[in-house]
């Protein structure tokens, strides 16, 4: 069984961090747009689904909180990875 190179794991981790961050930001923006504008009210009323508006806040506010937390987690992971790489680079330069 071949060993996985550390650089490959770092590339996979940074790709996952980027995907996590993009998902969090996109979800946050969608939730904010739905919460902050009456666009959703107009659209649901136009297609005859205005009865769903009674519970929409129970869904959108937790979704907004989840996506903001997901964005924060993605930023935290990205910062932690950057600090780790900076420490490794500095250690390698000192040992050379």
From TrEMBL:
Species annotation: Sphingobium baderi
Keyword GTP-binding: no
UniProt keyword annotations, A-Z: Membrane, Plasmid, Transmembrane, Transmembrane helix
Residue stretches spanning the membrane: 20-49, 55-76
InterPro entries: Mercury_ion_transport_MerF
Name of the featured protein: Mercury resistance system transport protein MerF
Entry annotated with the keyword Transmembrane: yes
Cellular component, GO annotation: membrane
Pfam families per record: Transport_MerF
